[in-house]
Amino acid sequence: MMGLEPRSAKHCNVGDHWLDDVARGWLKDFGTRDIGLFDLCAKFDSIEVWADPRPNDQLVLVWLLNLLRPYKEFTTKLSLVHTDDSAGNYHPQSVAKWKLPVFKVTDAHLTMAGRAWSAWRAPTPERWFDLLSTDLTRLPRLRPALITMLEELPDLDTGLGENEMGMLGWIDDEGTEPRLVLRAAELRELYDEREAEELLTKMVECPKPAIVELGEMPLDTSREARLNEPKGRRMTLTDLGRAIMDSKSDEDFSRHNPIHRWWGGTELTNERLWRWDRRNRSLVAP
Questions:
Q1: What's residue 230's pLDDT?
Q2: Geometric angle at alpha carbon 166, from 285 and 146, rounded to 5°
Q3: pLDDT confidence bin for 227, thresholds 50/70/90
Q4: Angle between the N-to-C axes of helices 142-150 and 55-68, in degrees from 0 to 180, rounded to the nearest 10
Q5: DSSP letters along 158-212, please?
């Protein structure tokens, strides 16, 4: 909650305050860049929350509604607008002309958001999966987000999530530049640049890699390295990587390498590896 408070000495680093990443021009009528979220909400008689369809946007939506849920003085002002594309990709003057339905936020919206946020933070994916069997019409973009998130669990057959498999599939036989491999994650619009780099690095820096870099230089997937990327730098699949991509193979990345990452509130390890059965769209317990 600290990042949502009015700016103070505690917000000493860029990114500590909720308005740090907002362009100054967008705040010219606020009077200050130091205001807290709740203080800002108090200034308006009505508030429209525009929710983009990407999975992370839906997570932010349920987090925000759950956060505001105890504050009736704010929730009674709220309305929802569900977009079909990322509004940030368009000029503000163009977005202002969009004619989209506006839905008043009700207790049903808040209850569903609270349930979804609690499920995402739970120590197992079971409650998140169970949401698929409930009525989600109040938050119409949530169901695709649920499925996309579940697809990031280790696959039942390969031990890798959908984004990791996408990176493997982006690599051709002659080798592919690291920046293009990372583009596979960008296309799914789920992970930010840093998170995508971590996924890629874990498939390279492990006992039995699925990907290696051609040549002698160690892999460096940092943004600075990619901006200054030597021409011709390439990544290629190992025998394990090719076997994982072969649908006839039974190779599993987790059989050869340690797994330790977080999926929401679930800690995934080799001993506690929740998996996603893509063919049957079902959750598989360790």
A1: 44
A2: 45
A3: very low
A4: 120
A5: TS--HHHHHHHHH--TT-B-HHHHHHHHHHHT-S-HHHHHHHHHHHHSSSS-SEE
